[in-house]
Amino acid sequence: MCGRFAQYSRPDSLKKTFNLDVIACDVVPSYNIAPLQPVLAVIRHDGNRLGRLQWGLVPAWAKDRTLAAKLINARAETLADKPSFRSLFKRHRCLILADGFYEWKAEASQKQPWYFTLPTGGPFAFAGLWDTWKGKDDAVYHSCTIITTAANGSVQPIHQRMPVILAPETHAEWLDPQNQDGKRLNTILSEGHLRGLKRFPVSKRVNSIRNNDPACIEPLKVED
After folding, report:
1. Each residue of 176-198: b (16+ CB within 10 Å) or e?
2. In a 3-state reduction of DSSP, which class is residue 21?
3. In 3D, which of 119, 86, 98 has the Cα closest to residue 39?
4. Which of 2, 94, 144, 216 is catalytic?
5. Residue 2 annotated as catalytic
6. Which of 25, 77, 94, 103 is catalytic?
7. 55 burial via Cβ count (<10 Å: 0-12, 13-18, 19+)
8. Residues 82-125: pLDDT tens digits?
9. What is the C-alpha separation between 67 and 81, in angstroms, rounded?
C-alpha cells in the first residue's frame, strides 16, 4: 500500500517535469502527507492542470464521505472489476505528485520507516484516479486514490506493495480521457512504471503526522 509520502519540489520544477499548462493552487512543501489530507494532482482539463485533491476517494455515487478512509489505495490488478474504480479507470485518471514515499518494515516488536525516492532526487508521479462528490448541501468534494502494485526489487525487502510510479513518457497517455483502451491502460500500469528507487531508513518521528519538516526525510544515522 501507500500510506504516507512527501512532496516538496518547487513550482518551476513541477511545471517543467509535468508539462503543466495551469497551476491552480498554492504549492506548499509537505514532508509527511497522510490520508485524508490534500495532495497535488494533475488532471487533463484545458491542458495539464495542477490542483489539489483530497487523498481518499469518495465516488460520485457515494451516500456520504465515509468511504474516503477505505479508498486511499486501489490495487492495479482489480481496477476494471471494482465498482468504485471501474468507470474512473476509463475516464478519470490523474497524476499524484510526490518526491518520495514511506514504507514500514517490521523489525522484532517495532516497525522501522524507510524512505523511497528517485536516484536523481527529482519529483515523480503516482498513477491515480479521481472523482467529484456532491453533498446534499451542494458541497463539492474532489478526491483521489493512489494505484498500487506488487513491490519491485527496490521495495520488496521492505514491503510487499508499492505505489505505481509512472514513467514520464506515459504521462500524456495516462491523462488523456479519450484513451479508454483497458488493455493499453493495464499495460501502462504493468510496464510503464519506474523501478530503480533509492531507499534508506529514516527517523520514527515520521510516524506522527504532527512532524512535517525536512528532518522526516533525513537518512537515519548509524548512532541513531
Report:
1. eeebeeeeebeebbeebbbeebe
2. coil
3. 98
4. 2
5. yes
6. 103
7. buried
8. 888 999 999 999 999 999 999 999 887 889 999 999 999 999 99
9. 18
